[in-house]
Write a structure and sequence with these properties.
This protein has 146 residues and is mainly beta. It has 2 helices and 8 strands. It has a single domain (7-131), classed as Roll (Pnp Oxidase, Chain A). The chain has a 6-stranded antiparallel β-barrel. It is globular and about 40 Å long.
């Protein structure tokens, strides 16, 4: 549902998916049994309304295989203009077959290490917001630490 909240313009699912198609890096997050949350960047693509990304053996693959809820976030910011957007999605992931190269949704990893597993994250909930140009933005205070 699209609405207003302060200077954030809330976005509906279709707008969120459209924005996700405009970038190729996002972050995948999951919680372990002990409650520790891991967040890692991934190169991704959309296959219909699903996020697909490659991975090697390790934490991401373990989280997928154990059926954990996975969060995915991507954004695009223009700090000088105090504008941008952010999309957050939540769902469950599975190992999937290689997509048809003609389908145009193969994630291309910036990391050249082998990533033999292709993951499909089925987006069950999607939300997002846009900070409009000159909409007040967010004030970020920077501190110089010794």
């Amino acid at each position: 549902m699209t609405g207003q909240r302060d200077d954030h313009r809330m976005l509906g699912r279709d707008a969120c998916l459209s924005l996700l198609r405009s970038v190729d890096v996002g972050r995948v997050a999951w919680a372990a049994d002990d409650g520790e949350v891991t967040v890692v960047p991934v190169n991704f693509a959309l296959a219909g309304e699903d996020v697909v990304f490659r991975t090697a053996a390790g934490g991401k693959l373990d989280a997928v295989r154990s059926g954990r809820t996975i969060s995915f976030e991507a954004d695009d910011l223009e700090p000088a203009l105090r504008a941008g957007w952010s999309v957050l999605a939540v769902g469950h992931a599975e190992l999937t077959a290689e997509p048809d190269p003609a389908a145009g949704h193969r994630p291309v990893s910036w990391d050249r290490r082998p990533k033999p597993y292709l993951i499909r994250l089925r987006l069950e909930r999607v939300s997002g917001f846009r900070l409009p140009l000159h909409g007040g933005g967010v004030s970020i205070e920077r501190r110089n630490e010794p």
